[in-house]
Design a protein that fits this description.
The structure is a homodimer of 286-residue chains. Chain A is an alpha/beta fold and 286 residues long. Chain A folds into two domains: 26-125, Rossmann fold; 135-265, NAD(P)-binding Rossmann-like Domain (Rossmann fold), CATH 3.40.50.720. Chain A is 40% helix and 17% strand.
C-alpha cells in the first residue's frame, strides 16, 4: 500500500516556484484580504503569508473589520487591481453574510486571481485551456501524478460537488482522460458506484463518510476532508481525521492519502504556483 | 414509449420569447459573423436569421471572406461590442484554420455572447450562477423537463465531452441533482456504464454508436447526433440518423428523442432565448 504524503510533493512545487522567481528575477506580491475575525481564516491567511516568504514572494494582508460594507471591500479590490506592484489577490472566504461572495470574486481582476475563483478563469479551466487552476483540485491531480497513478481510462469517482473542489476536480480528471462520475447528497446507492471506482476523490466534509466496505480492493483514495474530532484518550484532547476511514480503507487500497499529511498542504503549494503563473503571464500587462 | 419531439418544445420557447419582446417593447438585434463559404455554416446562419424574424429580433449577417485576417475579424467584433444597437453577437464556427477560435470567442463581449461560449459565461454556468446557457445542452435539459423526466437522484450518463455539448450537459445535469458519469473515447467497457444509466445523453458524432444492447429497459435517451447517411432505397438518396440506433433502442427505452425532429431544433430556440436574456440583462449597460 502506497501512502501518498503531501509534504514531499508540496516541497517539490515550492522549491521550483522559488527557483523560477530567483532565476527570472521576478517581483511578485500577494495581497490577501481578510474580512472579520474568523479564527480559521486568520490561520489560513497567516500560513499563506509564510509560504510567500519561503518562495520569495512579497505579501501583505489587508485586514478589514467585520462591518466592512460591500462598497468598501469592492473599492479596496479595485485599488489592488490597479496597483502594478500587486500581482496576486485573494479574498479569504467565507465572507460575513452581508457581503455577496460572487460579486466580490467577480470584482477581482482575473489577471490577479490567485485562487482561480473568477468565472473567467473557471471558464478557461472548463474549456481545457486554463491559465491558473483551483488550488485544492490541482493539488489532488499533482499528487496523483507525482505518485504515478495512471488516470487515463480509469473509473474515477468524485464525491462532493462544490465549486472549490468536487466540480473542478471532476473536470480535471476528465481532462486526464479518466471516466468520471460525480456523486453528491442526492446520489442513490452510492456504494454501488464507489465499489466500481479505480480512483476515489472525496470532498464531502463528513468525517469517515467513506468506509472500507464501499471501496474495491486496490482502489486509490484521495481524501480532501479534514476534521478535528474530540478524543480524550489523547493528551491534546482531539485528533484530525478525514472524509475517509483511513485505518480500514488503507487495508484494501493500493494507495491513499493520509489526513493530516495528505492533500492539505498541496492546496497551499498550488497557490504559490498560481501567483507565479499570474506573474509570468500578466505582469506589466494590466 | 414516449417520443420526445423537439418541435412542440421549441415552438413553446419561441412563442414565449416573442411575447416577452412584444410586451416589454424590446429592440434586440443579433449580428452573426460568417467567415468563408462553408455550406453547412451558411445554412445554420440563415436559419438563425429566420428564427430572429419569427421572434421579432432584428438580425444581420456579416459575411467575411475566407481570407479575412485575425485582426480584421477582431476589429469587426470590437465594433459590434461597442455598437449599442447590437445586443447579441455570434461568430459561426468552425472558423478557417488560420483564425484562433479561442481568441475570437474571448474577444466577443460576454454581455453579447449569444452562444454562451465566452469563458466568463462558461465559468458562471459552471459555478451554478448562469446568465446565458449553451444552446444544445440547455435544449437537452429543457426537453427532459418539458417531458417531465425526473432527473434528481437519477444516474445520468453523458457520452462525449465536447465543450459545446458533453461537458456543459454534464454540469447542467449535475445541477439538476443527477449523478453524472461522463464517458468518452478513452472510456473502457462503456456498455457496463451505459447499462446502469437511467438517462443517456449522447453526443459523440458517430452514427448509431449507441446500440440497444448497451442500454437497460426503461432508460431515457437523448440523441444529439445528426448524420446524413447514403440510402439508395430512398428517393432523395440519403437518410438522417443520430448517434443512437433509434429503431432498436426505442423498443427498450421509456423515452427517446427522434433524429431528425428531436434536439436539433431546440438548439435554435435556446439561441433566441439567450438573445432575449442578454437584452434583458445588459441592454443599455455596455
Amino acid at each position: 500500500m502506497l501512502l501518498m504524503k503531501g509534504d514531499v510533493v508540496a516541497e517539490d512545487i515550492l522549491s521550483k516556484v522559488k527557483k523560477t522567481i530567483e532565476e527570472k528575477k521576478l517581483s511578485l506580491k500577494l495581497t490577501a484580504i481578510l474580512v472579520g475575525n474568523d479564527e480559521a481564516s486568520k490561520i489560513y491567511v497567516s500560513s499563506k503569508k509564510k509560504d510567500c516568504e519561503k518562495c520569495g514572494i512579497a505579501s501583505e494582508v489587508i485586514h478589514l473589520s467585520e462591518k466592512t460594507t460591500e462598497k468598501e471591500l469592492l473599492d479596496t479590490i479595485e485599488k489592488l487591481n490597479n496597483d502594478d506592484s500587486v500581482t496576486g489577490i485573494l479574498c479569504q472566504l467565507p465572507l460575513p453574510p452581508h457581503l455577496n461572495e460572487d460579486k466580490v470574486i467577480d470584482s477581482i481582476s482575473y489577471k490577479k486571481d490567485a485562487d482561480c475563483f473568477h468565472p473567467y478563469n473557471v471558464g478557461k479551466l472548463f474549456i481545457g485551456n486554463p491559465i491558473v487552476e483551483p488550488c485544492t483540485p490541482k493539488g489532488v491531480i499533482k499528487m496523483l501524478e507525482y505518485y504515478n497513478i495512471e488516470l487515463s481510462g480509469k473509473n474515477a469517482v468524485v464525491i462532493g460537488r462544490s465549486n472549490i473542489v468536487g466540480k473542478p476536480a471532476s473536470i480535471m480528471l476528465l481532462q486526464k482522460n479518466a471516466t468520471v462520475t460525480i456523486c453528491h447528497s442526492k446520489t442513490k446507492n452510492i456504494s454501488e458506484i464507489t465499489k466500481q471506482a479505480d480512483i476515489i476523490v472525496i470532498a464531502v466534509g463528513k468525517p469517515h463518510f467513506l468506509k472500507a466496505d464501499m471501496v474495491k480492493n486496490g482502489c486509490v483514495v484521495v481524501d480532501v476532508g479534514i476534521h478535528r474530532i474530540e478524543d480524550k484518550t489523547l493528551e491534546k484532547g482531539y485528533k484530525i481525521i478525514g472524509d475517509a476511514d483511513f485505518e480500514e480503507i488503507s487495508k484494501k487500497a493500493s494507495a491513499i492519502t493520509p489526513v493530516p499529511g495528505g492533500v492539505g498542504i498541496m492546496t497551499r503549494a498550488i497557490l504559490m504556483q498560481n501567483i507565479l503563473t499570474l506573474g509570468l503571464t500578466y505582469q506589466g500587462k494590466n
